[in-house]
Automatic annotation (TrEMBL):
It comes from the Eukaryota. GO terms for biological process: canonical Wnt signaling pathway. GO terms for cellular component: plasma membrane. LDL-receptor class B repeats lie at residues 1-43, 44-87. It comes from Ciconia maguari. This is LRP1B protein. GO terms for molecular function: Wnt receptor activity; Wnt-protein binding.
Length: 179
């Protein structure tokens, strides 16, 4: 799945398959400017920052169990968001500090460091890098991912795929080759 935020005409948090199909709103009320987004891959939760409401909220992958982690002036100007173990990590773009927020109670907020020009944050940890099983976009004997001449995108599950073409090309009638 692909998770993303949108604060155009109607602000929302959405998800879709990697090929763009099955687009679903998971949050579409009491939300104004969702920006940074982070996933808890183990427990299947989506965290986001709303810079207009000065809040960090969470919801499960289906839009249920929504609640506010923290809200108020102390978390103004947040950009970037990452989750690791019991904490959320974010960057305060006003004073360029990295903040650590307890994601279970929201009361434990600590400034860890200051960085010049930081706008994004990521946590890389081996446990969050799930083992890849055999999937529909594996390279075929001819060196083509999923048998696609340009791009192979996973679809509704790891066994299904959709071929797409680079800009300037169109997908052939075979659904695999680009012309």
């Amino acid at each position: 799945k692909l998770f993303f935020t949108d604060y155009g005409n109607a602000a929302k948090v959405e998800r879709c398959d990697m090929d763009g199909m099955n687009r679903t709103w998971i949050v579409d009320s009491k939300i104004e400017q969702p920006t940074a987004l982070a996933l808890d891959l183990v427990n299947k939760y989506v965290y986001w920052v709303d810079i207009y409401l000065d809040s960090v909220e969470v919801v499960d992958y289906h839009g249920r169990k929504r609640h506010t982690i923290i809200k108020g002036r102390q978390i103004r100007h947040l950009c970037g968001l990452a989750v690791f173990e019991s904490y959320l990590y974010t960057v305060n773009s006003d004073n360029l500090s990295i903040l650590r927020i307890n994601r279970y109670n929201g009361t434990d907020v600590q400034s860890l460091a200051r960085l010049d020009n930081a706008k994004e944050i990521r946590v890389y940890q081996k446990r969050t890098q799930t083992a890849v099983r055999s999937h529909a976009c594996e390279v075929d004997p001819y060196g083509m991912p999923g048998g696609c001449s340009h791009l192979c995108l996973l679809s509704s599950n790891y066994k299904a795929r959709t071929c797409r073409c680079r800009t300037g090309f169109i997908l052939g009638s075979d659904g695999r080759s680009c012309k």
